Amino acid sequence: MTAEIDDTYAEAFRSIYAEILITARDRRWLGHAVAAATGNASSTILCDCEAGLDRYVGPGDSPGVAAGANQAPAVVVGANQGPAFITPDGRPGAIVQFHVPRFRKDRVEALGRVLLVRVSQNVLTCPTAACFNLLDTAEAFELGRKISYFGDGYQFRDQRFGRPVWVLPILGGEFVMDDRFGYREGLMGGNLWLMGVDEDAALLAAERAQAAAAAVPGVIAPFPGGVTSSGSKAGSRYKFCVASTYEKFCPTLRQRLGADSAVPPDVGSIMEIILDGHDLPAIIRATQGAIAAAVETPGLVKISAGNYGGRLGKSFVYLRPERQPE
């Protein structure tokens, strides 16, 4: 059985984002650094940013592009295989994105604070980790210089891996990181709603959708496991809440709300994935990949998305590809 694909769109809005490369001795410690650096960053409703893993790269991992010394990434092609991502130090790496909504007046300062706190407290502290910039932009944060003060006067500049870096003596050895970390405009708020007959069906569909979206470079899904079970609406009957449960789409409120309920018949659970990324084409590719991966999930009734009629963002991600403008 194939689920219905709603004739609607997800409404994405502009962000500014930074993109960093974390490397470590092995996948175990790399995973610890990524988990810590992207923690408590599911939603900008109350978190300081939305952050997540784009993809693992480097030895034994997914295709990508090479990170040059303070240059735009360049493609390196291996024999009989696709582009390979070569990390500066040749170790396993992970690309991580941090997004702040562009509508924030203090967006640049806020993103700078996000990077300072998360890199210094969660990457610097992780055994064997190093940190590199991936965005070669005119505007950038001098993050390496700021974090280098942790060296208490023993920090120094050096040339490592063909690039200028800061080196901080630490108890575990040395922490190496770039100086400048760029940022540019991106998009937040792409989304899909997976409506199943029960929780198991909705969650399985969401897991399939998230896995497919995660395979698209340049996109992150910031919620735990890339999935949220508590999709929200803007505002609340309580003045101190900026967002609240979307009661019209809560299956357990169907009888209480009556005609005001928007939950389709036979739907007992709705899971959502949120997608942030480089640009609209990347989020469109991730959305279509997610739909294709989930649409035949047993027990999935419908795939839909949330929007505010264009009041939040001007980038529309149509679920039906024929509706997407050229």
List the helices and strands and how they pair.
Blueprint: E1 4-5, E2 9-23, H1 27-37, E3 50-57, E4 93-101, H2 107-123, E5 130-133, E6 140-141, H3 143-148, E7 156-160, E8 163-170, E9 173-177, E10 181-196, H4 199-214, E11 219-220, E12 232-234, E13 243-245, H5 254-257, E14 269-277, H6 280-294, E15 300-304, E16 315-318
Parallel strand pairs: 1-15
Antiparallel strand pairs: 2-4, 2-5, 2-10, 2-16, 3-4, 6-10, 7-8, 8-9, 10-14, 10-15, 11-14, 12-13
Helix pairs in contact: 1-2, 4-6
Write up this protein:
This protein has 326 residues and is α+β, with helices and mostly antiparallel strands. It folds into 2 domains: 143 residues, Alpha-Beta Plaits; 170 residues, Alpha-Beta Plaits. The chain is built from 6 helices and 16 strands. Strands 1, 2, 3, 4, 5, 6, 10, 11, 14, 15 and 16 form an 11-stranded mixed beta sheet that branches. Strands 7-8-9 form a 3-stranded antiparallel beta sheet. A hairpin with an 8-residue loop joins strand 12 and strand 13. Helix 1 packs antiparallel against helix 2 and helix 4 crosses helix 6. The chain is elongated, with a radius of gyration of 21 Å. About 6% of the residues have low confidence.
